[in-house]
Design goal:
This protein is about 80% helix and about 0% strand.
Amino acid sequence: MFNQMSLLRSKKQRKLLFSAGLSWMFDAMDVGMISFVVAALAKEWMLGPERIGYLTSITSLGMAVGAASAGILADRFGRKSVLLWTLLIFSIASGLSAFAAGYIMLCVLRFIAGFGLGGELPVASTLVSESMPVKERGRAVVLLESFWALGWILSALIAFFVIPDYGWRVAFAIGAVPALYALYLRRAIDDSPKFAEIKKAPPVPLKKRVAAVWSAEHRRSTIMLWVLWFTVVFSYYGMFLWLPTVMVLKGFSLVKSFEYVLIMTLAQLPGYFTAAYFIEKFGRKFVLVIYLLLTAVSAAWFGNATTEGMLMAAGICLSFFNLGAWGGMYAYTPELYPTTIRSTGTGLATSFGRIGGIIAPTLVGVLVGRSVGISTIFMLFFVTIVIGALAVLFLGKETKGLELE
């Protein structure tokens, strides 16, 4: 069924995919770690739901600033150099989080880590998208995104085996490891051929690049992408950063909740792989619309689950379809802009989406604090995800098989 192995025949493409993929994995490990750490911190520091929400939202605030900044800088200085700097920033800040003496200090460090995280993701997807043949471009970016699942699995394993016995500080210290990987990455990858071409020409001023993103030619795509990114990021961070805590609220122990979330996370991998297959067979819009609608159904199911079996089944479906949609979104976004503004357009869309990631965890914290039911909260995510699917259906254009300008 799957033709993913064709991507692995070229040594250069294989090296780029795995090198960028590992940096993506470390990103996911850090984001996943905070979702598990807050569940432990809530007990150790006696944090209420609202303060947990603020802590998770501050990472997304940093990601919003980082995505816009890195996207703009990558169109000016290159994809590779910005990728390396963002990797260093987030890994150092994550490692320093292990020494946080209090809530405020941890929030500051999480903002800095978020800046690096948010900057790295759109730049890495742009680099891979620009470096792959047209027939394999979408599949390559979805496979790049599949490393996110590996990072979440890694964070779940650390949460399961490390946090209960050694504490959350050791978990954060492990997050400093990617700083060493950045030194390898500096020699392992090259900038994209597309960027090398435009680098010969005079740089386009920032004001003109931003104006081009909103020009008549790209306005419809930009509106669609901003709606898509906001709804997907809002629902993802609202649901997944709260999963361990939601499991505890539904009556499971902290260790048991980690175990269940790990099982749910494993379902992300087949979600990515099926999306990678369908994206080149049926197109980007097909994958996004179908996977988003099925994510919405899974969210409603999860929120209304009344038994342990239903909760697990709904959580597995939620992971499968939501992360498949993420892969499609990262593949689709860079394809809608020309090379001169590609990273800027991708970064701005990603940055706007991160606003959803700022609002959602805080909003869930407030709602939980006011005793709003989990089923009501997850119906909110159902509606949000459907809006994103409709935006793609009616405003999106198909980019399957099109050469990048």
